[in-house]
Amino acid sequence: MKILLTTDWYKPVVNGVVTSVINLKKELENRGHEVRVLTLSRSYESYAEEGVYYIKSLNLEKIYPNARAVLPHTEPLIRELIWWRPDVVHSQCEFMTFSYAAKISRKCQCPLVHTYHTVYEDYIHYLPGGLSQYKAGAKIEKKAVAYFSKMVLGKTSQVIVPT
């Protein structure tokens, strides 16, 4: 099978999502699958090397360590991945690369599988200037985050939730 993994976090960043993606890629390749990764570049340049497609992005480290954002634009690397025609797209993040995962899945008419690594409702207290300092505000934020998660996951064929 041709499998596309999409993730906002990849080498050289070190965190649980990156470790999970690296291990998944390695094991899928060990089983004979052709695997490519779509992730965010650490700069405002797009490039591909060794089956990893890096999309240009902006630094958002003032919001969260190692965070990056993409700007809406036509990306030649996305067209290349659509041309490659993966059999399945497996997204690992709900934010920047998820929209690309959904687009590629739709264009290639293949399943979109998603691994839900983080229960964001448990992290709202980290939001700067958030409402969670107030009891009612925390409920509103949790509901908003739960709605966002449900909206994203509703676009997928399958969801994997590691424990």
UniProtKB/TrEMBL annotation:
Organism name: Candidatus Blautia merdigallinarum
Lineage: Bacteria, Bacillati, Bacillota, Clostridia, Lachnospirales
Protein name per UniProt: Glycosyltransferase
Superkingdom assignment: Bacteria
Amino-acid biosynthesis found in the keyword field: no
Domain Glycosyltransferase subfamily 4-like N-terminal per the UniProt entry, residue ranges: 14-163
Keyword field: Glycosyltransferase, Transferase
Gene3D superfamilies, per database record: Glycogen Phosphorylase B
UniProt EC number: 2.4.-.-
GO molecular function: glycosyltransferase activity
The protein's enzyme class: transferase
InterPro entries: Glyco_trans_4-like_N, Glycosyltransferase_grp1
